[in-house]
Amino acid sequence: MLGFARALLACCPRLLDHPNVPLFGRMFYYAVRTGRKPGVYLNWDQCKAQVDKFPAARYKKFASEEDAWDFVGIDQTQQPSDEPVTDAVNLPAKSEQETTKHQKETSKPILGSPKKRSHCQVSLAEEQPQPKRFKCIKLCEVPQIEKDKFTYMGESAVVYTDGCCSRNGKLKARAGIGVYWGRGHHLNVGDRLPGRQTNQRAEIQAACRAIEQAKSENINKLVIYTDSKFTINGITKWVTSWKKNDWKLSTGKPVINKEDFEKLDELVQGIDIKWMHIPGHAGFSGNEAADRLAREGACKKLEDQ
């Protein structure tokens, strides 16, 4: 199969120019420098929505998250809010010929060698939380960022959250939460989850911690990347009906994580949050970093122990 794919690309090299064509299962980052909402997107459909029919749109596909942010023009070592990304309508319009030429050039993928995912070593090896059951593709280099700076997607600050639990649902389960704002950031969190030790609670509480931190920093627009569809669906779809049904499921059974979703539902009030699902352990550096923080947190002792 691999030989056939290579032969096909050899005969038709222009297939690589198409944004929807993956290279042997690798994942890419779509960077929009000039468009409706400049930022880094995880698939072509999201990117297309920002650049399609936009005057003099500038976008490009990258194999590295760091390279993608560099193209967007957000310097990881400077405060993005001090120097907002210039909107395309304020830029001089290019001729149709120049625009077509630029789009052809920026549609080509930039390739990079994949890296194997490394696991941090902890003292409690026999109880170290195990990664979720996703295929590991590669670990991109975590972007460099000063400890008191934030990364922005348009006007929204970006944060990655994750939760984990070893022996989930069993005796001696250990759960942790991870919140990642950037490399070396002073708000990064890797803490043990108090109370009932489950993976779903850890995912919800990690999102709660990120929102609490954002509000403490007077951030009113936030993009939360999480690999927990349960958390996203719970707070964006199910919570309304849960509250109407006195926190009961359609089967009549009580919502198991009622207290956690009550807390999350209260926190999302007064802040503009965009929830973004990201595949776990698929090579996205922010998600990998949040997962690492969660696993480190799960290895810590609870304060009452």
Distance between the termini: 54 Å
Put simply, the count of helices is 8
Low-pLDDT stretches are 1-6, 13-25, 74-146
Strand content: 15-25%
Major sheet details: 6 strands, mixed
Helix proportion? 25-40%
Structural class: alpha+beta
The string of secondary-structure elements, in order, is HEEHEHHEEEEHEHHEH
Mean pLDDT: 74
DSSP summary, beta strand count: 9
The dominant shape is globular
- Write down the Rg: 21 Å
Question: Keyphrases for this structure?
Answer:
8 helices; 16% strand; 31% helix; 6-stranded mixed beta sheet; 3-stranded antiparallel beta sheet; globular; disordered N terminus; 305 residues; alpha+beta
Describe the model:
The model is unreliable at 1-6, 13-25 and 74-146 (pLDDT under 50). The chain contains eight helices and nine strands. With 305 residues, the protein is α+β, with helices and mostly antiparallel strands. The strands form two sheets. Strands 4, 5, 6, 7, 8 and 9 form a six-stranded mixed β-sheet that branches. The radius of gyration is 21 Å and the shape is globular. The longest helix is centred in the last third of the chain and has 18 residues, at 199-216.
